[in-house]
Specification:
The chain has 2 domains: 2-127, 3-Layer(aba) Sandwich (Rossmann fold), CATH 3.40.50.720; 152-314, Dihydrodipicolinate Reductase, domain 2, CATH 3.30.360.10. Helix content is 33%, strand content 19%. Helix 8 (151-164) runs parallel beside helix 10. The chain has helices spanning 12-21, 42-45, 62-68, 81-90, 107-114, 121-126, 133-140, 151-164, 195-198, 212-224, 257-268, 284-287, 316-330; strands at 2-7, 27-33, 71-74, 94-97, 129-130, 145-147, 175-180, 203-204, 231-236, 243-250, 274-276, 293-300, 305-312.
Length: 346
């Protein structure tokens, strides 16, 4: 039984971690922290967890966490994890960081995109593994520090990797159009996320230059051996959960449907949480509340482009569910443990 701590458990990803972990047969939720809610019962902040999680939020105390936990999920804003992760690792704990501090391997890139000096370059370069299981499963099982991917990059990378690693499409000219539910913006109150502003509305935001661009470009560069720049525009949907990404790439000459289908079948037929759809279209409703990523690929013969559409739940496969999938790999559990359930429909 793995004893679990969550630092920053009062946000949406922290709440989702708790919801999923209470049904995990090999995990025991031991400790949750929230500096703004010390002493508050979990069920008071998350009524849906009342009578399911019998804990109160605590302040962050690394010595106490080290005594009571085996693994810690850090679900805190960028710039925060790197201040506490070194002490957690020195205490012998495994760490899965759901923030951005360990996703970019180059501290110069981190500073360029997040406007902060990285304070833990040693662990960033020595231990941190990008936690996309479908790509880095072998590395994840042997590290004490996993950088859980961002929600947008998860939807995009799973969609395009089979094409790019086989040189079936060109990352030059790659355009990513993604739409996310409002929970991706976090739980903190913001004027533009109030119901009257959001309801019946649909808008693009943080373009060009959304921080997840660097994350996607970094992984694509590792896969292809070349550095590519992509065009990424995120949009805010008037729904609570879900990401739908549509990716457009130039198709290499002579590539047809057979090669594309074979590539996705080869990469994903054995993957427990990726569904390659040949006769239907990904929809956010079909992955709502689940750890699945649904993908469909079509060729536009008129423009010689390939169009990839993917759908995930941004709080599950895009955050907390994927984090638990990584935990399962780190401890040698069945990868689907605690996560094998369908999306909620209708």
């Amino acid at each position: 039984m793995v004893k679990i701590g969550i630092i920053g458990a009062s946000g949406y990803t922290g709440g989702e971690l708790m919801r999923l972990l209470i049904s995990h047969p090999e995990a025991k939720l031991e400790l949750v922290t929230s500096r703004s809610n010390v002493g508050v019962k979990v069920g008071e902040l998350f009524p849906g967890l009342n009578k399911l999680v019998d804990l109160r939020f605590e302040d962050v105390d690394v010595d106490e966490i080290g005594k009571r936990c085996d693994l810690v999920f850090t679900a805190v804003p960028h710039g925060t994890s790197m201040k506490v992760v070194p002490d957690l690792l020195n205490a012998g704990l495994k760490v899965i960081d759901l923030g951005a501090d360990y996703r970019l391997k180059d501290p110069v890139e981190y500073k360029a995109w997040y406007h902060l000096e990285h304070e833990d370059v040693s662990n960033l370069t020595k231990y941190a593994v990008y936690g996309l299981p479908e790509l880095y499963r072998n590395e994840i099982k042997d590290t004490p520090l996993v950088a859980n991917p961002g929600c947008y990059p998860t939807s995009v990378l799973l969609g395009v990797v089979p094409l790019l690693k086989r040189n079936l499409a060109d990352a030059r000219g790659m355009i990513v159009d993604s739409k996310s539910g409002v929970s991706g913006a976090g739980r903190k109150e913001k004027p533009d996320l109030h119901f009257p502003e959001l309801h019946g509305n649909f808008k693009a935001y943080s373009f060009p230059g959304h921080r997840h661009t660097s994350e996607m470009e970094g992984v694509i560069s590792q896969i292809t051996g070349e550095h590519f720049r992509i065009t990424f525009t995120p949009h805010l949907l008037p729904i609570a959960r879900g990401i739908l990404s549509t990716i457009y790439l130039p198709l290499k000459d002579g590539v047809g449907v057979e090669e594309i289908n074979a590539a996705y079948d080869e990469d994903y037929s054995h993957e427990p949480f990726v569904r390659f759809l040949k006769d239907s279209t990904p929809q956010t409703k079909n992955v709502f509340g689940s750890n699945f990523c649904d993908i469909a690929v079509k060729i536009d013969t008129r423009t010689n482009r390939v169009i990839v559409v993917s759908a995930i739940d941004n709080l599950v496969k895009g955050a907390s569910g994927q984090a638990i999938q990584n935990m399962n790999i780190m401890y040698g559990f069945e990868e689907t443990l605690g996560l094998r359930f369908a999306g909620i429909t209708p």
